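User: Hello! My lab partner asked me to get a predicted holo structure for this protein. The small molecule is FFO, SMILES included with the sequence. Please write out the structure tokens.
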Amino acid sequence: MNEGTFSSPPCFAHELQQGPNGYEMVDERTATDVARWRKAERERLIAARLAVPMEERIATAQKIIEALDGLTAAYSRPAVALYWPFRGEPDLRGWMVALHGQGARVALPVVVAKGRPLVFREWHPECRMERGIWNIPVPAEDRRLVPDIVVSPVVGADRDGYRLGYGGGYYDRTLASLPVRPMTVGVGHPSAEIDTIFPQPHDIPFDRMILEGRQWERK
Ligand SMILES: Nc1nc2c(c(=O)[nH]1)N(C=O)[C@@H](CNc1ccc(C(=O)N[C@@H](CCC(=O)O)C(=O)O)cc1)CN2
Ligand SMILES: Nc1ncnc2c1ncn2[C@@H]1O[C@H](COP(=O)(O)OP(=O)(O)OP(=O)(O)O)[C@@H](O)[C@H]1O
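Assistant: Hello! Below are the structure tokens for the protein in complex with FFO.
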């Protein structure tokens, strides 16, 4: 046998990753560059959001609520996953109460383990809460539901519907694991709009983004 030659072509299977569109090539260096860029971009975007005065944040949340009202009106008693706001995310808790009052089921995301999909625990206005990951309050009782609509806070959002979050990959993993894809809505301050998140095979685009008055559907 010739030294330095191989009996078969080199195998690139290690560079393949299964994503929502099947197997795709992943270049390790590009993946590392994107991860680094995202880390810096998250820090920049979160700092920009925290610098927004409280009155402006309240006005933003109000506009988001108006848009969400329009979307949920098409559903009869939907199961809606929302979130308990922190780090300058739009506060939609007043709307959660109103939605519950209209007969919708409301749920909050819970991290059960790192690297696992989120679960959604049913929430109601008087429900007992406990502290979850990052001390974010979650319903104490583990009554799970499968959402028809997922409303998720964005750190960044691009015009193709891709969402940048806190870097845990939780929403992508969760959407990939659900048997039926819910309607997905990203919400945030207008400062969250970016040109691209440099989508990777695991990134799942959202159906709609609502950044205050600025709204778009996935292209
Ligand atoms: N209000 C609210 N609740 C939410 C979310 C959210 O975005 N907003 N989540 C949406 O997902 C989940 C929590 N998300 C998390 C995302 C990342 C990490 C985390 O540990 N991040 C690492 C950095 C990861 C990395 O860069 O590799 C860290 O900070 O050390 C924790 C929780 C569930 N609850
Ligand atoms: N379906 C998946 N299966 C396995 N790993 C995944 C999946 N989705 C995301 N990840 C991993 O999670 C990590 C973080 O992903 P990403 O940068 O997209 O997070 P994010 O969307 O900003 O976070 P979050 O959804 O928690 O707010 C990446 O290393 C990615 O490989």
